[in-house]
Amino acid sequence: xxxxxxxxxxxxxxxxxxxxxxxxxxxxxxxxxxxxxxxxxxxxxxxxxxxxxxxxxxxxxxxxxxxxxxxxxxxxxxxxxxxxxxxxxxxxxxxxxxxxxxxxxxxxxxxxxxxxxxxxxxxxxxxxxxxxxxxxxxxxxxxxxxxxxxxxxxxxxxxxxxxxxxxxxxxxxxxxxxxxxxxxxxxxxxxxxxxxxxxxxxxxxxxxxxxxxxxxxxxxxxxxxxxxxxxxxxx
Amino acid sequence: xxxxxxxxxxxxxxxxxxxxxxxxxxxxxxxxxxxxxxxxxxxxxxxxxxxxxxxxxxxxxxxxxxxxxxxxxxxxxxxxxxxxxxxxxxxxxxxxxxxxxxxxxxxxxxxxxxxxxxxxxxxxxxxxxxxxxxxxxxxxxxxxxxxxxxxxxxxxxxxxxxxxxxxxxxxxxxxxxxxxxxxxxxxxxxxxxxxxxxxxxxxxxxxxxxxxxxxxxxxxxxxxxxxxxxxxxxxxxxxxxxxxxxxxxxxxxxxxxxxxxxxxxxxxxxxxxxxxxxxxxxxxxxxxxxxxxxxxxxxxxxxxxxxxxxxxxxxxxxxxxxxxxxxxxxx
Amino acid sequence: xxxxxxxxxxxxxxxxxxxxxxxxxxxxxxxxxxxxxxxxxxxxxxxxxxxxxxxxxxxxxxxxxxxxxxxxxxxxxxxxxxxxxxxxxxxxxxxxxxxxxxxxxxxxxxxxxxxxxxxxxxxxxxxxxxxxxxxxx
Lengths: 235, 331, 137
Known about the structure:
heterotrimer, A: 235 residues, alpha+beta, Cyclophilin, 7-stranded mixed sheet, 4 helices, B: 331 residues, 7-stranded mixed beta barrel, 6-stranded antiparallel sheet, 5 helices, 21 strands
């Protein structure tokens, strides 16, 4: 056993490589995050999907986690040479052709308004739109699942109309119900767990988004197209 | 079979967690002190990642309904079996009807009760870990209640334990070359600068130099630290990205949060550093109110610690077999 | 045949000399009335022999605990002495350390240690006496 690890020799610089529209930085000893540094759009996300497909075949990978125009890779063991790994990731990014995932089409029946729409009034105040207009704009949209994360089966949906963007709440709702249809910034989604939630609720959907006993536990997958269908509007 | 006779809240069945599902939002979960779990299982001849009971609230009592072997690793909580004190980290035979009792921890905070064959609950998505947040896995997706009954599995090659048992020396003693001792009472936690480190300007140096206190708002999800706040030089809006346990995020309050085993799978707060994998178990044993300091290391240094720990666990498995064999031969 | 008095210093001296000449590390003689244990510890300062002899008396003969296997003798769990209030099993008279493993050595039925027969850190072999415990009452 060598004692050198106990000695403290700070590295000269933090490892963070920035090249050709992407940047790689470590999270701890085994995880590396590649972030696309350009626009937050579908084109960037398509390249992330392509990168994910290439990287998940690498032998040293424990798991990959596609995020919003970024990809986290978790390795089985800590690499001795993190820079080599970062460079390989950047090379894979450069070679990643844009792919479109041929996802499923998912229709989600929503009760707009009602007791669960706790933040609809605040959204009207901010946007200057009536509640009917907010609901119409939301259900007329076509959304793409960019990534899953945060809670089991939760899909981050891209494609929200900028007129109904609504920043996350500074004080989260303490006990928002599973099934609430929510807006968080420029994203929308359906709450999968009952609990604290900083997103803004405008309606409710019965659809269960996650079943741990299923072979495919999450209903949504990246690339899926989602439409919200009003089952009822209670305003 | 074992029966829980007395338990507080938040004591759960855990294994090494549920990797591979962060991409659908599923937290890894798993033991907060994976070293204690691995050593306990290795000592009993179990698979390294067999399911165990993680105890965080005390006192805790269980009754063995049938004869088996067990070891309590992790925190030293003055355990006793049938009223007799149990050496810390000592694998012992248990007879049917005997009661194992754990008191308040004297050293560390989380104890692991490992049983020959492992706790046999149904695997969900490849793991027996309890996901409290998702309410699945472990024992019905919840923490243990008094009266719960748990089964344990069969061991392929059971270890012949003498009546006084076979113990493991303290890993902190065995691995003293790769785990620095606390300085002025502060646990030294090795970490690597993360993506937004440079955005903290001069505050970044204060992150490394100051001593942080683990606040009462700390649990399996994460540890909130108390100290002189640190902030990025300009506010940043991050796109949500995957995170792993050990990530040190800095929310607007300026007091860092270390995400732990039950952490969210995604985050958006700027991250200043990431604790190395091999130091997470020490955090898992750190007490609320105790102090820690971050020490900057390289990946090569982290890899070296990781190898030493893996070597120790292999050594425990091989040597305990050898000792058990020698005792049998010399009977 | 006349019984030797095992506590006679002359007898002990003669036996010690024989053991030294034979290169033997120790001998243990047990009789119902007396027992004798001689260990040559080969220490650096030249005083090579350590002699313990005890006569059966009204306290009863001590029971000698022997090493169940080879290992490094630890009188207590030295790896945890730095830990405040570390717990320990009461019925072990010591430990044999083998790499990362610590084998508790049982005190037997009386559970009362009289004294250790070897120093901390000594490498002992199978069957080497390591402690004396009180006989069962």
